[in-house]
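Write out this protein's structure.
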Amino acid sequence: MAIDKLLIERLENTLVMLQVDYEEKKMFGGNFFMVDQKMCIGIFKHGIMARVGPERIEELTKHDHASQLVHPSGRKMTGFVLVEAEGYETDEALEFWVQQCLAFNPFAK
């Protein structure tokens, strides 16, 4: 899978604008942004993987182009949403997803 350098830059810019300290790591075949040493948001397959917590899955998957992340084995990934590119085309839409991840981050293990 080719690395989406523009999306990496957009995520970095959003985190910087929000004054968030982060670390970027490559894992699971994608690029992920760690906040407080916990996976927060990342680029996965052909979209972003947003760690929003299990309580918000039903609500957030009502957004267009967002679905619960499913492991290749078919198991639903608790607390993770996969957002297709159309779901974060604008900077405002991308910031929305980053904010959802940041809101859950203090509760993530």
